[in-house]
């Protein structure tokens, strides 16, 4: 663990409150982990990739799907709902490319209700914040 993290406990408390809200929000647990893994892959957060792949496996996620997650568009392994969730996650994470496009939102609205879409966006926002905290404070996965 880095000497840099944990210096603002109230901020971590606020982040944990958002995380706890999302855990109890009705998001499917496996989908929540897919969001966390995919954003962490894009951001290059080894600490979070390590944590969330373990968490996903503990929920019954398959190795095959975890390994293929960075190429999800080229596989038959993900449901239409998961594809919508992954597309939203990528566009939230890659915000510099213009955010969530109308097409991505409209495609998601074909398979998810607007409340679920909002939860997916908040989950992507939250893991992006955690990625930035972990990377900025030098957190490393345990061996």
Q: Would you write up a description of this structure?
A:
By secondary structure, this protein is mostly helical. The radius of gyration is 15 Å and the shape is globular. Helix 2 (29-43) packs parallel to helix 5 (80-93). It has one domain (9-136): Up-down Bundle (AhpD-like), CATH 1.20.1290.10. The mean pLDDT is 95. Helix content is 66%, strand content 0%. It has helices at residues 9-23, 29-43, 46-58, 63-68, 80-93, 102-109, 114-136.
The string of secondary-structure elements, in order, is HHHHHHH
Terminal-residue CA separation: 12 Å
- Return the CATH topology: AhpD-like
Query: CATH H-level name... which superfamily?
Result: AhpD-like
Q: What is the helix fraction of residues, given as a range?
A: 55-70%
Helical run tally: 7
CATH-scheme architecture: Up-down Bundle
The CATH class assignment is Mainly Alpha
Number of domains: 1
* Unreliable sequence segments: none
Global shape: globular
Average pLDDT metric = 95
Structural class, from secondary structure content? mainly alpha
Radius of gyration: 15 Å
Largest sheet descriptor: none
Strand content: under 5%
The tally of strands reads: 0
């Amino acid at each position: 663990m880095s000497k840099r993290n944990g210096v603002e406990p109230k901020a971590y408390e606020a982040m944990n409150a958002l995380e706890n809200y999302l855990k109890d929000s009705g998001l499917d647990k496996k989908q929540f982990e897919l969001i966390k893994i995919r954003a962490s892959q894009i951001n290059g957060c080894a600490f979070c990739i390590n944590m969330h792949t373990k968490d996903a496996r503990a929920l019954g996620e398959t190795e095959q799907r975890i390994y293929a997650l960075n190429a999800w568009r080229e596989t038959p392994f993900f449901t239409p709902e998961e594809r919508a969730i992954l597309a939203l996650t990528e566009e939230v994470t890659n915000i510099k490319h213009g955010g969530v496009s109308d097409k991505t939102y409209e495609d998601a609205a074909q398979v998810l209700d607007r409340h679920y879409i909002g939860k997916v966006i908040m989950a992507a926002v939250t893991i992006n914040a955690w990625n930035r905290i972990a990377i900025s404070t030098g957190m490393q996965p345990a061996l």
